[in-house]
């Protein structure tokens, strides 16, 4: 013998679809949730990929500077200020502004 609670459970399935609250059946609610999670994972992966590419760009500049360390040290010591040193590194080694700041 089953009680009414064991036989039937009522739920209101509301989700935000295109920034509007919508009552959905269970399959559509689950699909909306899965689509949202896929979107979040893609955004997070794109963010981490962009950070990794930025870091790789900096490391490539550091490796370039490391390859000609004596020239870099001489250029920095002979420069009157930091801006002139950065300009010299950009001209002589082909480094970008982000790489010279690192």
Key traits:
72% helix, mainly alpha, 102 residues, two-stranded antiparallel sheet, 2 strands, 8% strand
Tell me about this structure.
This protein is mainly alpha-helical and 102 residues long. Helix content is 72%, strand content 8%. The protein is built from five helices and two strands; from the N terminus they run αββαααα. The chain has a two-stranded antiparallel ribbon with strand order 1-2. The longest helix has 42 residues, at 26-67. The chain is rod-shaped. It starts with a helix and ends with a helix.
* Low-confidence residue ranges: none
The level of helicity is over 70%
Number-wise, the strands total 2
Share in β-strands? 5-15%
Record the SSE blueprint.
Layout: H1 4-7, E1 14-17, E2 20-23, H2 26-67, H3 69-78, H4 82-93, H5 97-101
Question: What would a concise description of this structure say?
Answer:
This protein is mainly alpha-helical. 72% of the residues lie in helices and 8% in strands.
């Amino acid at each position: 013998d089953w009680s009414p609670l064991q036989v039937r459970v009522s739920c209101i399935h509301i989700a935000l679809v295109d920034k509007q609250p919508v009552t959905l059946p269970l399959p559509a609610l689950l699909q909306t949730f899965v689509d949202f999670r896929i979107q979040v994972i893609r955004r997070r992966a794109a963010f981490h990929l962009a950070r990794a590419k930025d870091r790789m760009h900096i490391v490539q500049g550091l490796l370039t500077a490391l390859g000609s360390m004596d020239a870099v040290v001489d250029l920095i010591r002979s420069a009157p200020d930091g801006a002139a040193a950065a300009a010299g590194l950009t001209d002589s080694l082909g480094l970008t502004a982000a790489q010279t700041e690192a």
